[in-house]
Amino acid sequence: MIRWLTTRKMSAVWELAQGGSPGQALRIVPMAKVHSAQLDLSWRSLEARLPLDELPTFHRAFLSWRGVEGAAEMPLRRVQQRVEAELNKWVQSGEASREGDDLLISRAALSGFSAAEHWLIPLPD
Questions:
Q1: What's the CA angle centered on 7, arms 26 and 18, to 5 degrees?
Q2: 95 Cβ partners below 8 Å, 6+ apart?
Q3: Distance CA 77, CA 6 (A)
Q4: pTM for this one?
Q5: SS3 string of the chain?
Q6: In the predicted model, is pLDDT for residue 122 greater than 70?
Q7: Do 3 and 14 meet the contact criterion of CB atoms below 8 Å apart?
Q8: Rounded to an integer, what distance in angstroms lies between the CA atom of residue 97 and that of residue 39?
Q9: CA distance 31 to 84
Q10: Is the Cα torsion angle 121, 122, 123, 125 positive or negative in sign?
Q11: pLDDT in tens, 67-108
Q12: Pick from 28, 32, 31: which is nearest to 15 by CA?
């Protein structure tokens, strides 16, 4: 049995040791950090590809995908704050890296986020 746990300080996997029963032999295994070469997507460039009037809907979809409750009813300013908070969680867990005002992530980090799929298609040269 594996359960995911996300906290402000870290993301971890709770794993039962083999042969253990619930409540026994629990250990925390930190999530693997993403190698910097895999950080191939700029969050700001992803946002820039969206039409401006679609950005709030994209951000709300991102928050819902990340499990933030009530994202659809949040005021826009609060949505922006929560998106930054979620991005910071990725940085803290090693799944992303800050580069100035931008955030570098791997495309794999957005796996399952259907609202981003169209915008992840490379632009033709």
A1: 15
A2: 11, 31, 33, 34, 105, 106, 109
A3: 24
A4: 0.66
A5: CEEEEECCCCEEEEEECCCCCCCCCEEEEECCCCCHHHCCEEHHHHHHHCCHHHHHHHHHHHHHHCCCCCHHHCCHHHHHHHHHHHHHHHHHHCCEEEECCEEEECHHHHCCCHHHHHHHCCCCC
A6: no
A7: yes
A8: 8
A9: 21
A10: negative
A11: 999 999 999 999 999 999 999 999 998 888 999 889 998 888
A12: 28
Residue whose pair of structure tokens reads 């949040």 in the numeric block = 74
The number of residues making up the chain comes to 125
Residue 107: CA atoms inside 13 Å, Cβ hemisphere, count?
A: 7
Q: Look up residue 37 and give its amino acid.
A: A
Identity of the residue numbered 118? H
**Is residue 64 pLDDT above 90, yes or no?**
yes
